[in-house]
Amino acid sequence: MAHVPKVPISREESGLCPVEVRKILKVMRLICLLVMLLATATAALACGGDTDGPRVIELTTRDTAYSLDSITIKKDEQVTLRIKNEDAVEHDIQVDDLTVEKLSNAGSHDHSTKPGQLHFHVDAGPTGELTFRATTAGTYEYYCTVEGHRDLGMHGTLTIE
Ligand SMILES: [Cu+2]
To answer: Is 30 helix (H, G, I), strand (E, B) or coil?
Structure first.
């Protein structure tokens, strides 16, 4: 192979006039900007977008049964427990001997017998939810207080880690 000396190419030798060089630089800057925007958007998506919102736990009630046998949450974590009632009868969920900080309640009725009791009730058909925070760790039983439903299997284990 013939020896080709490496000589830096000047603007004149490259055949590009300063106007063309400026145009190329402008396009390159635009590409850089787009890449940075894309990276930012990807990072935002990777973070889930709204990391501050409560975690939603979906529980369906169908044929007098809960879809989940156990629910695990973290102490002090904001959690939205959502019950989608697919049955033709009302259901509820209650945990005895646990006091939680209730943050909001939507589409459900609260028939708690004690302040701070984790309890809410969902009519036949709709979806109801309760957003709360548990401040004590432990293992508890959740169950449906509608007569006979607990015995039919409407209960499960709530673990607060
Ligand atoms: Cu029930």
So the answer is: helix
127, amino acid identity: T
pTM of the shown model: 0.67
Domain of residue 104: give its range.
55-160
Is the per-residue pLDDT at 150 higher than 70? yes
- Kindly state whether residues 75 and 146 are assigned to the same domain: yes
Residue 43 has pLDDT above 50, yes or no: yes
In a domain, 1, yes or no: no
Cα of 152 from ligand 1 centre, angstroms: 9
Q: 152 vs 10, 63, 87, 113, 119, CA distance in Å?
A: 86, 10, 14, 23, 19
Among 89, 72, 81, 93, residue whose Cα is nearest residue 138:
72
Q: Give CA torsion, residues 108, 111, 114, 117, to 10 deg.
A: -30
Residue 62 CA, ligand 1 centroid: distance in Å = 9
**Ligand 1 mean position, distance from CA 130 (Å):** 17
Residues 55-84 have pLDDT tens digits of 999 999 999 999 999 999 999 999 999 999
Rounded Cα distance between 22 and 25, Å, is 5
